[in-house]
Amino acid sequence: SDLWSLGVLLYAAVEGASPFRQDTPLSTLRAIVDEEMPPPHRAGALGPVLEGLLRKDPAGRLPAEEAERELRLVGAGGAPSGRGPRTGAPPPGAFAPTVVAAHP
C-alpha cells in the first residue's frame, strides 16, 4: 500500500489532481476499488512508473527496488526500462512551467 500511496502522491503532484477523487467520499472509495487510473497527460517519462505503482493488483505493482531504480532513471532525465505499460507521448505543452502562488 505504501507504493500505491506513493503513486497517488506522484500522480497528484504531476497532474495537479488526485487520480481517483470524486464528489463524495463513497464515490472516491468506489473509484479507488473499481476504476483504472486516468491516463496521465503531463507525466512524460514518469507515466509508466505511475502506472506500475497504481496497478490494482498488489502482486502486479512495481517492487520497491524497481520503483526506486525507475524513479532515479526518470529523475536523471532517462526513460524507464519499459517493463510496465506505456502511455502515449505527452501532449504539446505538457512540460510547460506552472506558477503556484504561496499563501503566507
Give an overview of the whole structure:
With 104 residues, the protein is mostly helical. 41% of the residues lie in helices and 0% in strands. The protein has a single domain, classed as Transferase(Phosphotransferase), domain 1. The longest helix has 14 residues, at 2-15. The protein is globular, with a radius of gyration of 14 Å.
Give the secondary structure arrangement, pairings included.
Elements: H1 2-15, H2 25-34, H3 47-53, H4 64-75
Helix pairs in contact: 1-3
Task: Provide key terms for this protein.
Transferase(Phosphotransferase), domain 1, 104 residues, 4 helices, mainly alpha, 41% helix
Query: What fraction strand?
Result: under 5%
Q: Alpha-carbon distance between the termini?
A: 33 Å
Give average pLDDT, whole number. Answer: 82
> Whole-number radius of gyration?
14 Å
- Number of H- or I-type helical stretches: 4
Describe the sheet with the most strands.
none
Extract low-pLDDT stretches: 84-97
Q: What is the CATH-assigned architecture?
A: Orthogonal Bundle
Approximately how much helix is present in the residues? 40-55%
CATH topology: Transferase(Phosphotransferase), domain 1
Assigned CATH class:
Mainly Alpha
Helix-strand category: mainly alpha
Number of domains as seen in the coordinates: 1
Briefly say what this structure is.
The chain has 104 residues and is mainly alpha-helical. Helices cover 41% and strands 0% of the residues.
